[in-house]
Amino acid sequence: MRLHRLEIAAFGPFGARQTVDFDALSSAGLFLLHGPTGAGKTSVLDAVCFALYGSVPGARQTPGASLRSDHAPVGTTTEVVLELTVGDRRLEITRRPAQQRPKKRGGGFTTEKAQTWLREYDPATRAWQGLSRSHQETGEEITQLVGMSREQFCQVVLLPQGDFARFLRADAEARGRLLGRLFDTRRFAAVEERLAELRRRAQRQVEEGDERLLALTHRMGQAAGGLDVARTPVDGRPGEPGLADAVLTWAAVARTEARETLDIARVRLEAAEARQTAARTALDTENDLAARQERHADALRREERLAAHAPERDRLRTALDRALKADRVAPALALRQDAERAHTAARAARARSRSLLPPDLADAGAEQLTALEHRLRGELGGLAAARRAEHRAAVIAEERAVLTREARADEAVLRDTADWLADWEARRTELTAHVEEARDAAARAEHLAGRLEPARRRLAAARRRDALAEDVEAAGARLADAREHRNTAHENWLDVKSRRLEGIAAELAVTLVPGEPCQVCGSPAHPAPARTTAGHVDRATEEAAYAAYARADELRTAAENERAVVRESWSAARAETLADGPPGAAGSTADPADGPSATELAAEVEELIDRHREAHALAARTHSAREALAAAEREHEGRASAQREAERRVAARTSRREALDAEATALEEEIALGRGAFARVAEHATLLERRIALLVDATGTVRAAEIAAERLKEADGSLADAAYRAGFTTPAEAAAALLPDAERRDHQHRVDAWRAEAVLVEDRLAEPGAAAAAGLPPADPAGAAAADAAAARTLRDASSALTAARDRSTGLAALSRQAMAEVRRLGPLREEYDRVARLAALTAGTSAENERRMRLESYVLAARLEQVAAAASARLQRMSAGRYVLVHSDARSGGRRAGLGLHVVDAWTGSERDTATLSGGETFFASLALALGLADVVSDEAGGVRLDTLFIDEGFGSLDEQTLDEVLDVLDSLRERDRSVGIVSHVADLRRRVPAQLELVKARKGSAVRLRTGGEALGG
After folding, report:
1. According to a count of CB atoms within 10 Å of the terminal CB, is the N or C end of the chain lower?
2. Alpha helices, H only, 845-919
């Protein structure tokens, strides 16, 4: 990686744009960066780091810290441009941090986001090609090309000698942290953590398996309750060796005892079953004897009851036989009863219908009544035509009344319509005039409204303009005071800062500690430290002065922004006052440039409001006027149409009335003939219909009575004949022998029950052995049942004991199989845990096999440190004239772990000692050699990326002349590998020895860079 050009603008102490030509500086191979304290030497290196990685090294990249220069003008953008070559690609990186800039519109500031541009030079087209504007893409591209992170770059390319001096004196832990950042050994630490995690995971799995095994043991102890083995449970904890064997041994003993208990329970059950079988046989025998004795005694008792009920049984049998004979007479008897009821009903109906007839027809027969009915029906038929004529005459009378009412209504419509149409033309002319007047007022109101709103805006703007004019004057006065206060504070700060710089040596001398290197020259000897004077200014005073200046500058900026905002508001109000109005108003007393006064505009607005209100009120009647005209026209059309319809109806009604009059005259003659002596034809017809109905009813009842009498006579003859054939003397005797259905069923049920009982008694008395059983002593089933119950209880107890023993044996066998399966499953896990635990202890440095107690990461870093020491020794020998060599030591120190020790071998004495014993100058060139060696190793580690540009920061002041020459020779030899080295130093002697120089000059407006080469630089 080679740097070509660096441009810095408004960055750090640089207020204006500065350009650093690294190609011109690198042509000599060795160049010097020098300048007073605070001029920006470190800021040049920060700019390089910011261009590559978007951030600056160390504590300078703290949250809230700004990279923008305090010396930069407001319009200058903070920017860093770096042109470099990485590999065979020439790139240009441009970065702008997030910063404040003035708003494009209005006053104040706005935050502009950070921006990045990455371009590549194309030799074929000789032009720059844009690659990316993304922060992330650019960062990934640069990190991949350079092969180093920001921390590695700041440690390898920007060689901070103070850090390597501390590295030489640091302990193993501190060296490990630095080397870990440079060589990125996080993957080895991750391996350690991964192995530790695998060990913890395997340990958890083994302990979980042991817990499950102990849980199974507890369940087996519960299952083995009552056995001797249950009194001696397994004693062990999860993770202990030998736990599995103890559990399996205990389970085997428990299974053996359970099987012995099971065999004993089987023998006891067989004996109980034999005793229970004998008791059950004896019980069955006693129960059978008792049942046969009871059946024989019961049969004798039933036989006695049957003999006592014999007379009643014979009486019921006789009644059932007579009722069976009477059933043959029952149909004839029922037929006679029905005929008698029908005859009685017919006679009652005949008497009721004859009571409604005239007296002369009370004894008339059916034929006489039928003849009279036919005569009346003929007379009723002759009245049908007269009834229709009478109905039609009523309809005609109603229609003539309707025509009369319609005629009167049409006459009223014709009179009203004629009166209204006579005034139509005058009314239409008046309504049309109202519509035209309202339309003109609406147009006038719209025109005035268009003038009113701009006039109101101009009035409001004029009032704002007059109020803001006073604010502009007040803001101008405040701005003048703020500027004066800021200038005074700025001069005071610059004066205090200049006085502090004059006494900075005394301030640095306060921090000197005997035996420790100086921060400026690096020498551990301090023969004549500077003293503070009476007028010395310390850092707190300078910071207080700067803080006062910063507050004053913020107040001045705020005053400027306030004045700009107020003046812009006044200009906008003034422009709005002049807009939409005439160039000048007649009689205006205001300045023509500022527009009319607020009073004149207010009068104009009031006048427009009055005129607009008047026109708007008149225009508001437009809709009502149009609606009135439209309604009048609709009414005119309706009335004309109604007039024509009324005239048409009058003509049609006259013709209809004449036709109705002729039809009514013809119908009146026919109605008079049919009406006779009655007022109406309908009354005559109703009387005839009522007489006909009475005759029809009387004829029917007379004939029905005659038929019922004939049927009753026939039923009497049939009943007498049926009673005689059934064996009864009279029909009354047969009727008395009949039994109701319920009584007959009861008699039959009782007879059947007695018959069944007699058969049952006979069968039981004839059963084999019944008489013999009755002659034996009474049976004792209760005693036999008690003996059987006792035998059953003994059997249940033996069965329960066998079931419990079988369940215990089965449960212990199943749990033992689970325990054996768990032991087999835990075998590979325990082996895996032993293997992982051994590896984890080995990589963590806690294993006895790791003799030096080195962690894996420390072991890798020790190998890298050994490479760095070898590369550094090649340069350290030249710088120390062959006296010193750096060697890596992996020896342990006290109780600490080994691996990252660093010693120096003194060729003059042949002894090996710790690097912390080197003097200040020896520490410098030893740390320089270490830094250069580290740069070579990290470069190789990063994939062989060439580091063609290096920077070395301070420490040369601790060297004598001879050693300085040797160090410069070593640095100059780097050109053999086509490298260029930049030395950052205050040492004046280097200005005479290094011809290529980049001088940084400090000024009140910001620092500037000057490039000097050859004789110009050496001549000073």
Report:
1. C
2. 856-879
